[in-house]
Write a structure and sequence with these properties.
Elements lengths: L1 H11 L18 E7 L8 E8 L8 E11 L1 H7 L4 H8 L13 E2 L3 E9 L11 E5 L11 E5 L3 E3 L6 H5 L2 H14 L11 E5 L4 H12 L3 E6 L4 H6 L4 E4 L5 H6 L6 E4 L5 H5 L10 E4 L4 H8 L1 H21 L3 E4 L6 H12 L7 E6 L3 H9 L6 E5 L5
Parallel strand pairs: 9-10, 9-12, 10-11, 12-13, 13-14, 15-16
Antiparallel strand pairs: 1-2, 1-4, 3-5, 3-7, 3-16, 5-6, 6-8
Helix pairs in contact: 5-6, 10-11
């Protein structure tokens, strides 16, 4: 896959400007079924429509995907209620070219597994009919829809061994974990063997992926979850499973040898003591996925929010550096090449999807309520195209 990526990258680096070149669809359509929101709020803002504007290719490197399955992530709940809207709207329309409230109607859903329907003129890596998967970044229209448009560099060939329903459960959580562990945390196949890794919040979507990823790379994994998820954790390869409900989590973890790497999916008060569990002056790293970046921008505006966030991460990084450990924040990053690597791990049997429940396309509000209830074991998946 790397060779194909390189060829495609070379084609894209040929300097073609983003002409609004696109091939007219053979069956020109103007509308499609979709779940949208017209305002931010609770679950009652979700609305099914058959007249959502059909996506079109605006740039030569884009593709249109027919969505077979999608899945929900906590970011969908956050976006439904308006969390991060300031930052996302700035990304959607950086030059303020459009009038206000341009994000509505907004389609949620970040994960997609489906089939390429149409390709922009500079897309050489994919062709119509290819089975693909992707995680669409949150500033774009989402995947709870019959079709979605994506940049070619966000898309990857779906693992051959997975159905669309299974594949749809992995891209967003997989790329979030990959960003935290590999790109921010610096762990990879060649340096992870024998390292002691602690995953806080191990039974959710990101956690179940992270446990399998570092285990595939040869780490010793300690997973923190509630007791009823311990069998799942063992099945995924965790060496030690700690029940956070059976006494003080901090005290339980202090009885174990120190760690080389901690991934925190929980945040909150955990951060106050978790870094003391790292080996000092050894390059040990704590990476948290719980950051105040979007909430700062919502509260303080773009400039002040970015400033406050920069000061916070800078001061925390320095404080912990003086104590001999690395403190980092990580975010989801869309990436077709990273999905290529994840697909290889999936096809080789080292990572498997963990699905909590599958809902039909008509049951999207029910799926949101399920996710809102918390304590999921893996992912909530939406079957957009029923095989029946």
């Amino acid at each position: 896959t790397a060779g194909g990526r390189a060829l495609r990258g070379a084609a894209r680096a040929s300097g073609q400007p983003p002409l609004r070149g696109f091939r007219a669809s053979p069956r020109a359509r103007s509308a499609m079924p979709s779940w949208v929101i017209d305002r931010y709020g609770r679950n009652d803002v979700l609305r099914f429509t058959r007249s959502m504007v059909f996506p079109i290719i605006h740039f030569p490197n884009e593709v249109i995907i027919k969505v077979h399955a999608a899945s929900l992530n906590p970011i969908d709940l956050s976006m439904r209620s308006g969390y991060g809207a300031t930052a996302l709207n700035m990304k959607r329309d950086p030059l303020k070219l459009k009038s206000e409230d341009t994000e509505f109607p907004l389609t949620l859903g970040r994960d997609v597994s489906g089939v390429i329907m149409e390709c922009g003129l500079s897309v050489s890596y994919f062709k119509p009919g290819d089975e693909v998967w992707a995680a669409i970044p949150p500033w774009k229209q989402g995947t709870l829809s019959e079709f979605v448009v994506a940049s070619g560099n966000e898309v990857s060939f779906k693992p051959k061994c997975l159905s669309h329903i299974e594949a749809a459960s992995l891209p967003y959580v997989g790329l979030t974990a990959w960003s935290a562990i590999n790109q921010v945390g610096g762990l990879n196949q060649s340096n992870c063997s024998g390292k002691r890794v602690l995953i806080l919040g191990a039974s959710g979507g990101v956690g179940t992926f992270a446990v399998q990823l570092v285990k595939a790379w040869g780490a010793h994994v300690t997973a923190v979850c509630s007791h009823d998820a311990s069998t799942l954790m063992k099945n995924l390869g965790a060496d030690d499973v700690i029940d956070y409900k059976s006494g003080s989590l901090e005290e339980q973890l202090k009885t174990l040898p120190l760690f080389d790497f901690i991934l925190d999916n929980v945040g909150g008060s955990t951060e106050k003591w978790a870094l003391d569990l790292l080996k000092k002056w050894s390059g040990a790293t704590y990476v948290t996925l719980v950051t105040p970046f979007l909430i700062n921008m919502d509260k303080l505006g773009v400039a002040d929010g970015m400033l406050r966030t920069g000061v916070t991460v800078g001061s925390k990084t320095l404080k912990h550096l003086f104590k001999g450990v690395h403190y980092r924040w990580a975010f989801f990053m869309p990436s077709g090449p990273s999905l290529d690597e994840i697909a290889e791990l999936v096809d080789s049997g080292k990572i498997q999807p963990v699905i909590d429940q599958v809902f039909s396309f008509s049951e999207v509000p029910k799926a949101f309520l399920k996710l809102e209830g918390g304590h999921a074991r893996g992912k909530t998946v939406i079957e957009v195209i029923s095989k029946k």
